[in-house]
Automatic annotation (TrEMBL):
<dbReference type="InterPro" id="IPR000326">
    <property type="entry name" value="PAP2/HPO"/>
</dbReference>
<keyword id="KW-0812">Transmembrane</keyword>
<protein>
    <submittedName>
        <fullName>Bacitracin ABC transporter permease</fullName>
    </submittedName>
</protein>
<dbReference type="InterPro" id="IPR033879">
    <property type="entry name" value="UPP_Pase"/>
</dbReference>
<dbReference type="InterPro" id="IPR036938">
    <property type="entry name" value="PAP2/HPO_sf"/>
</dbReference>
<dbReference type="GO" id="GO:0005886">
    <property type="term" value="C:plasma membrane"/>
</dbReference>
<feature type="transmembrane region" description="Helical">
    <location>
        <begin position="151"/>
        <end position="169"/>
    </location>
</feature>
<feature type="transmembrane region" description="Helical">
    <location>
        <begin position="102"/>
        <end position="120"/>
    </location>
</feature>
<keyword id="KW-1133">Transmembrane helix</keyword>
<feature type="transmembrane region" description="Helical">
    <location>
        <begin position="27"/>
        <end position="49"/>
    </location>
</feature>
<feature type="transmembrane region" description="Helical">
    <location>
        <begin position="127"/>
        <end position="145"/>
    </location>
</feature>
<feature type="transmembrane region" description="Helical">
    <location>
        <begin position="61"/>
        <end position="82"/>
    </location>
</feature>
<dbReference type="Pfam" id="PF01569">
    <property type="entry name" value="PAP2"/>
</dbReference>
<feature type="domain" description="Phosphatidic acid phosphatase type 2/haloperoxidase">
    <location>
        <begin position="61"/>
        <end position="166"/>
    </location>
</feature>
<keyword id="KW-0472">Membrane</keyword>
<dbReference type="GO" id="GO:0050380">
    <property type="term" value="F:undecaprenyl-diphosphatase activity"/>
</dbReference>
Length: 199
């Protein structure tokens, strides 16, 4: 009960910021709703740079997300609760959302699993991939669709999955073979002008 109240209090603290600093709400809504498209575009761009490093990074990110999402669905079988706006009074709800089990946050799972996978490979100078998932996680609380426990659990699952996949995938020769086969077929359809770019 104490933890539950702390979760609600932490939610109120962040969600009420939308009432105090309403001029920031359009930015927060963009992060919570539409930053997903930027992430998808980043995945596509990295893939079609046609470098082995970027493609292995994308593969790791996708596998990490799938693993984290499976773990998230399993966690949701053991614990469930509705979104804050469906349960608590006077929630500052800024976006539309279906009422279902909000534990853990799928958005947070996606952003942490993919962004941490990107950061593990690119690291140097790529602070964007550390800050972006954190901002998105906070935005999901700010707009009223998740509790802190939802995003914290989603973040942990995303990070753990990204670390595990980063360690495992480079050891799997089957992944490298499948990528090599794909690139061979791609080369026949879309010949690369500069083969030296495969680094």
């Amino acid at each position: 009960m104490v933890f539950s109240q702390f979760n609600i209090d932490a939610f109120r603290l962040i969600n009420d910021l939308g009432k105090q600093y309403s001029y920031l709400n359009p930015v927060i809504v963009f992060l919570a709703e539409y930053m997903l498209y930027f992430l998808c575009l980043s995945i596509v761009v990295y893939w079609f740079t046609r470098t082995n490093k970027n493609r292995m990074m994308v593969i790791q990110a996708v596998i990490a997300f799938i693993l984290a999402e499976i773990l998230g669905k399993m966690a949701g079988q053991f614990h469930s609760h509705y979104q804050p706006f469906a349960v608590l009074p006077h929630v500052n709800q800024l976006i539309e959302h279906d009422i279902d089990n909000s534990f853990p946050s799928d958005h947070t799972i996606l952003f942490f699993s993919v962004c941490i996978s990107f950061w593990l490979v690119r690291k140097k100078g790529e602070w964007l991939w550390l800050m972006l998932p954190l901002c998105v996680a906070i935005s999901r609380i700010w707009v009223g669709v998740h509790y802190p426990i939802d995003v914290i659990t989603g973040a942990l699952l995303g990070v753990i999955s990204a670390l595990f996949v980063y360690w495992l995938v480079p050891k799997l020769s089957s992944i490298k073979q499948l990528l090599a086969l794909y690139e061979k077929m791609e080369q026949q359809v879309l010949p690369s002008k500069d083969k030296s770019k495969n680094f």
